[in-house]
Specification:
Elements: H1 4-18, E1 36-41, E2 47-51, H2 61-77, E3 84-88, H3 101-107
Parallel strand pairs: 2-3
Antiparallel strand pairs: 1-2
């Protein structure tokens, strides 16, 4: 069973890896867009990415979920995490306030 420290470090690695998943419409990664709300890990390091999308009718949801599985597959191959699943939630609702400063500058969104 992993320690709390190991779980925290694994969550950080997962988040870092998710910065490679680019929202196809906006061209910014899903972490900086503020779409990833939480990384859940169980005792076997099976991973659930709890996230939202910029809109409920996002036509590229399947593409983003597929990219997440592919990107985190690298950590799976290294034995750092177990299975990967994505849970798309609508609460809290995403807003531009959730974006990082980097994403706001890149997209020209004023604070």
């Amino acid at each position: 069973m992993p320690t709390e420290q190991e779980i925290l470090e694994t969550k950080e690695r997962v988040m870092a890896q998710l910065e490679n998943v680019i929202d196809p419409e906006l061209g910014i990664d899903i972490v900086n867009l503020g779409l990833v709300y939480e990384i859940e890990l169980d005792e076997e390091l099976n991973t659930v990415v709890v996230m939202t999308l910029t809109s409920m009718g996002c036509p590229l949801a399947g593409t983003i979920v597929s990219e997440i599985k592919q990107t985190l597959g690298e950590l799976q191959e290294l034995g750092e995490i177990g299975t990967v699943d994505t849970n798309i939630v609508w609460s809290p609702v995403w807003s531009k306030d959730k974006m990082s400063r980097y994403a706001k500058i890149a997209l020209g969104v004023a604070d």
